[in-house]
Amino acid sequence: MPATDFAADVKSPAAPTSSQRNETIAMLQRLTTTLSRLIYWREPVTSLLTLLAGVFTLYIAHCYSALAAVSYVLLSHVLIRFLYANITHVLAEMNLMEKKAPMRVPESFITEAEVSAYVPMITDAANSALRTAFRLLVGECNLYHGAFDGRILKVAAALYASALAGRALGTLGVLFVLLVAAFSLPPLYERKQREIDRALVAAQRRVAAASAVASDRLSALLAKAKHKAKTN
Q1: Can you say whether the dihedral through the CA atoms of 15, 19, 20, 26 is positive or negative?
Q2: Using an 8 Å Cβ cutoff, are 60 and 73 in contact?
Q3: Could you tell me the pLDDT band of residue 147, with boundaries at 50, 70 and 90?
Q4: Which of 211, 213, 193 has its CA nearest to residue 201?
Q5: Cα–Cα distance, 31 to 25 (Å, whole number)
Q6: Total-model pTM
Q7: Residues in CB range of 212: below 8 A, 6 or more apart
């Protein structure tokens, strides 16, 4: 088959329509709203159950291996769903509760057009992450230009803090702290927003000043090393 015929047979994904984009945006907004209602305790019972489910999952992961923990959690979910569906069906046949139409499984959950709408955003994010990772991997400091990438210091400080937290609390301990923080810090921030914003601005200024001083000093050291290398 000629290459032109083959290219003609290949169907390119259709461009997403405005209605499809609006549906996708609405879905993301609903997801964001749901997460926001959870962490801000707009529905205390739901938030409490979600927090307890997270704590129970971490407890299972502590008692068993990661594979066993995930398997037990999924098995529990499948069994509960199975029992609920069949028990409600039996009760409905006995006229003890209202009959409900069975839930239909959709043929497709996403379309090519919906996925293609996010390809540029995913590509930009992947390139940015890979570019930053490569700069960190090679320890970019531009020795022959007398410059230093300040992000190396930030990433190094974050990794060092992560290492200390993991050493002191363990992986599950860190995950537990993050889980509790996710359900406690947002309500606290909502009540003390002004005070926290002021403290964060002051901390950001101090960190930025310290980072600038460290970057300038390292740049000066690199410039001296460059000069010495040329003279030698």
Answers
A1: positive
A2: yes
A3: low
A4: 193
A5: 10
A6: 0.56
A7: 150
